[in-house]
């Protein structure tokens, strides 16, 4: 994510230039959070994958083949609660603040 301060924009080296350019063109539409360069994975998708795996493992019987696995994964994906997504998005400022406070070290997230 692009890190912004009142005086400058810092670009992390791991973001493709086209993404950075797009964000710069749309700065009025987004509030970009500071993003620590050495942070643990704060991607909300990791939590979503964990929830999906938990739900998949709770199903019985186990998937007999890849086709059934695919169908079950899609069913879980399409039935995830929008509230979960909203909570994950709302938690991002707290997550980033915790990582910044820990100077990129471990947090409860």
Overview of the structural elements:
The protein is mainly alpha-helical and 109 residues long. The protein folds into 2 domains: 1-35, no CATH class; 39-108, no CATH class. The chain is 52% helix and 4% strand. It has 4 helices and 2 strands; from the N terminus they run ββαααα. It has helices at residues 17-25, 44-58, 66-78, 82-101; strands at residues 3-4, 9-10. A two-stranded antiparallel sheet has the order 1-2. A hairpin with a 4-residue loop joins β1 and β2 (9-10). The chain is extended, with a radius of gyration of 18 Å. Residues 12-62 form the Tc1-like transposase DDE domain. One of its GO terms (molecular function) is nucleic acid binding. It comes from Araneus ventricosus (Orbweaver spider). Pfam families: DDE_3. This is Tc1-like transposase DDE domain-containing protein.
Quick summary of this structure?
With 109 residues, this protein is mainly α.
Give a topology summary:
Layout: E1 3-4, E2 9-10, H1 17-25, H2 44-58, H3 66-78, H4 82-101
Antiparallel strand pairs: 1-2
Total DSSP E strands: 2
Spatial arrangement of strands, main beta sheet: 1-2
Please compute the radius of gyration using only Cα atoms: 18 Å
Question: What string gives the helices and strands in order?
Answer: EEHHHH
Q: Distance between the terminal alpha carbons, to the nearest Å?
A: 18 Å
Main sheet: strands, sense, barrel: 2 strands, antiparallel
Helical coverage, percent range: 40-55%
Structural class: mainly alpha
**Unreliable runs:** 1-13
Gross morphology is extended
Residue-averaged pLDDT, rounded? 80
Number of helices: 4
- How many domains would you count in the coordinates? 2
* Portion in strands: under 5%
């Amino acid at each position: 994510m692009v890190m912004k301060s009142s005086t400058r924009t810092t670009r992390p080296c791991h973001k493709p230039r086209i993404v950075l350019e797009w964000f710069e063109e749309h700065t009025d539409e987004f509030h970009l959070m500071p993003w620590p360069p050495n942070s643990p994975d704060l991607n909300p998708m990791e939590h979503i994958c964990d929830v999906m795996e938990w739900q998949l493992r709770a199903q019985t019987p186990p998937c007999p083949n890849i086709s059934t696995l695919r169908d079950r994964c899609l069913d879980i994906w399409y039935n995830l609660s929008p509230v979960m997504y909203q909570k994950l998005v709302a938690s991002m400022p707290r997550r980033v603040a915790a990582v910044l406070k820990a100077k990129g070290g471990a947090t409860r997230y």
